[in-house]
Design goal:
- The protein has a 7-stranded mixed sheet, with helices on both faces. A 6-stranded antiparallel barrel has the order 1-2-5-4-3-6. Strands 13-14 form a two-stranded antiparallel ribbon.
- The protein is α/β, with parallel strands linked by helices.
- The chain is globular, with a radius of gyration of 19 Å.
- The chain has 6 helices and 15 strands.
């Protein structure tokens, strides 16, 4: 288990990658504990900011050594004041960081054919994952997709790590026109995939988990629930997940996830509290 570190990271570099910003920062004590799928919780707006809620970002890459004693990278898509503030950081600015957080992807004990599926900048944690799977002798095929070409992330870099790369865009601006789930079944069949790893929008994850189940493959999905605190206190990121005992509980994405078995998440009930959840209020009860 990792022991989260709280620190003030110093920004080393902010670079554009398509529609996104890749931010490198110092983070001594975090890289050596980080596994693919871990995330960071970052304070937004500085100490005097009115933006109280922190933001969570998947860890893209880490470097344990070097002149800064450990650095990491996150990928930021600007969609509001908070993410814009982060993208506007300059070299030597500091940010409040807590990490590594959450439960990472589980790597197979034996070599197996794996398919990695990423939607938009949801592909950020898949780079580290691809490297570690290859080190274990696994075949790694990658499928990434986005609405448009500029919303894809890291195409050239992931191509170097993958045995094969399939790209989809909604508008056909790069790769095949359509969604990742349109091409996933064929990729899985071609390489007899035993495990599917996915990170991206919830609708995509639900479809990926369904396809993996139909092919009798294991799936691990890193969910994109809103995680404000990152440490299990605020309860904004709960979703219904079936446990080993067959009972459904509302679990926290930030501490019990963000990676879940795809066949255990009740995707159609995300955003609700199903009546059969353990501890759910009973209508007409006392």
């Amino acid at each position: 288990m990792s022991k989260p570190v709280q620190l003030r990271g110093e920004v080393l570099d902010v670079r554009r990658s398509g529609s996104y910003f890749v931010i490198s920062m110092t983070a001594p004590g975090i890289p050596e504990q980080t596994r693919p799928g871990h995330f960071l919780n970052i304070g937004i707006g500085g100490e005097d900011s009115s933006m109280l809620l922190r933001r969570s970002f998947a860890i893209h890459q880490v470097q344990e050594r070097g002149m800064y004693g450990g650095t990491l990278e996150i990928v930021v898509g600007v969609n509001g004041k908070g993410s814009q503030w982060l993208a506007d950081r300059k070299r030597h600015d500091t940010v409040s960081v807590v990490g590594p957080l959450g439960r990472p992807f589980v790597l197979p004990k034996q070599p197996v054919a794996c398919v990695l599926v990423g939607g938009g900048y949801g592909s950020a944690p898949l780079f580290m994952l691809a490297e570690q799977l290859r080190e274990r002798g696994c075949r790694v095929d990658v499928v990434i997709g986005a609405a448009t070409e500029d919303k894809l992330f890291g195409v050239l870099d992931i191509k170097r790590l993958a045995s094969s790369l399939t790209i989809t865009t909604d508008d056909g601006s790069l790769g095949e026109q359509g969604r990742v789930t349109d091409v996933l079944p064929e990729v899985m069949e071609r390489h007899d995939a035993g495990v599917v790893y996915a990170c991206g929008p919830m609708g995509m994850l639900a479809a990926v988990a369904h396809i993996a189940g139909n092919h009798r493959a294991h799936s691990q999905c890193s969910v994109e629930e809103s995680m404000a605190c990152g440490v299990g206190v605020c309860m904004t990121c709960v979703l219904p997940v079936v446990g080993d005992d067959g009972l459904t509980r509302m679990v926290r994405s930030c501490t019990d996830g963000p990676v879940f078995r795809g066949d255990r998440v009740r995707w159609s009930d995300v955003g609700t509290i199903p009546d059969d959840v353990v501890g759910a209020p009973q209508v007409g009860g006392h």
